[in-house]
């Protein structure tokens, strides 16, 4: 307590932070309940780490060291590794309960899972069952009070003595995930610890509180893992969700931080912003649990608020995903010290104080879960029973999706769905809906009459009406639209259970092959497959010459080849025909492609294989700007796509280094959402004029337009200054004009290189900004346009809906010998927008061949 008194006195007297003495130790007694005794045989955090909790920011390896030791010394704790991060750090889940429960843990786990099965849950005696509480700490690495509080939580649960703790452990299974984001945690801890002074500096201008880009919030690829509970694109999320469904917890806590000048928030959030698929009983339980938090925070004198901000709409967040799985998710937001101690409007905010609030609400959650155990168990049982009743009444009896041309995309959507414990089937036989034929080989069926009915609806619905016009996150995420797959909702009129074929117990990546054996002439593969760009890149990596068809053709056997077909000649390669055949067999298999052996270049229809319309391709040598001014989320999504998924090697160049970097060896520049005021526009323009391709997305496209690099024009959106409005309505009124994330319909020019591989001229696009790009004066420059009635799912205000109609989604302009490709939207959003990834990849591989009439017309038009 002494350190807090020193800081408080200094703040009251208006003393300079420089006079604040070296931080004294914060004893365990500052955090722990005074009325509880602790087992001296259990080591304290200081015994293991060498310092008191809150004195330093624990690094991930220190956190792991502590957790491993506690699992060794305590018979109340077991620990399993559930995954590895991109940086190969282990992810651990601790199970804490009584030794007796540990002896029967598999039986308890199975019984608890049965609670979510309406066929079995009715026979369970919930008054005898323990509640399951999951505690997740610091999904954002630079919100460290949660992970550091987990040290106290595990120590307390291991060492506390007395009948109260024994009863808690007997009636509760406590699951602790001490660090959901180890890579981000380590990045942040390294920064603040290396900038900590011996005598704590609390001035907000200190470098300690201003970590460098991309900061520690995100994972290795700069993704916000708190948005990945539904998409499941990262190993952290995939491993965590497997454990979630292994246990089906009743309560899940999600410990975060917010601005330094705030206090403490706990859910519920704003009632009108709950997802309508979440039952009202969930909100009431959250409210009741909140009374325990209020009482505990009152006891230690901490200020807080609830039901005034944040929401529970997007099910991809950690505090909201449980709500659609029969549990109660609870968000905690603690004002952040962003270091060890920082001045705020509430006085000097210390790191130990932030940890104490997180630990205090950890204990209040456990108290509530124990007291409300039967209510929570009954809620989960009833949630799944009611879900099945709703399914029986619902018009939609099943969803079907698939793709004849691209089995890989359909496979990846089925892969995600299965991880959510949703049953997936193949059709028993082919059937046709809305002129689309779905076959057992290319399609999947999801019957809605299963316990996960509400989650199925959440993933497939196309909602366009809402109770509230403000959203903390996105308002739409319809998965078949994100994957650009053929899909349909099946009613009782066109779906019967006997249409279900084989249940998909395990998924196998689609097969690829070389069709027609070895050729001494050439091979081809079409660009429809999702992994066709990866196949092309693999061939280029091996120095194999490739060409692309800029028009259609057919062969004597009647097979038609589309725009964007890749041609691999046998002659002129640095490897012989046998070696080339072997390489193509490997590439076809790895990328789910059909590669066709060609024995003649004389095609009966369309262009010949030696036509000048078969354009030679140069391997992209990619640079991507990162650093100050660049949106790390959008940049990370592009980096992840190129590196992790498609095997490319983009060179990441900091914006501060661009002006002095030698860039002539690169032929593609990726500019993600951001402001690029610190790079030389003259250097960039000159590079493009010499033949480079620049891809500008979101704010980068606007920056290119504002600096005259490319002929791009954006609409000017004038604010409404005429109407008099109430000051209290300002936040809601302005917030309603934000496009937080919705899905829109666009129309493709399927003959354009940027649309190669698409077979349907309608393409769903995700939009999360109010940048509206005007149609070009050139008739060839906009291969993707918003339609006249574009809204497919999500919220957009009426004025913005009018603004987006018939605007350009992509603009291509020639600048000298190079190209500027502008996209106001992000085609790589959160890594699960598989459907628009091809626009981005086509820009990389085919930007170089956009020439001839389109380029000349663009230059002439301007």
From TrEMBL:
One of its GO terms (cellular component) is extracellular space. The keyword Disulfide bond does not apply. InterPro entries: Class_I_gatase-like, Peptidase_M14. Residues 56-355 form the Peptidase M14 domain. Residues 1-21 form the signal peptide. PROSITE patterns: PEPTIDASE_M14. The active site is at residue 333. GO terms for molecular function: metallocarboxypeptidase activity; zinc ion binding. One of its GO terms (biological process) is proteolysis. Keywords: Carboxypeptidase, Hydrolase, Metalloprotease, Protease, Signal, Zinc. Its cofactor is Zn(2+). Belongs to the peptidase M14 family. This is Zinc carboxypeptidase. It comes from Pontibacter flavimaris. The lineage of its organism: Bacteria, Pseudomonadati, Bacteroidota, Cytophagia, Cytophagales.
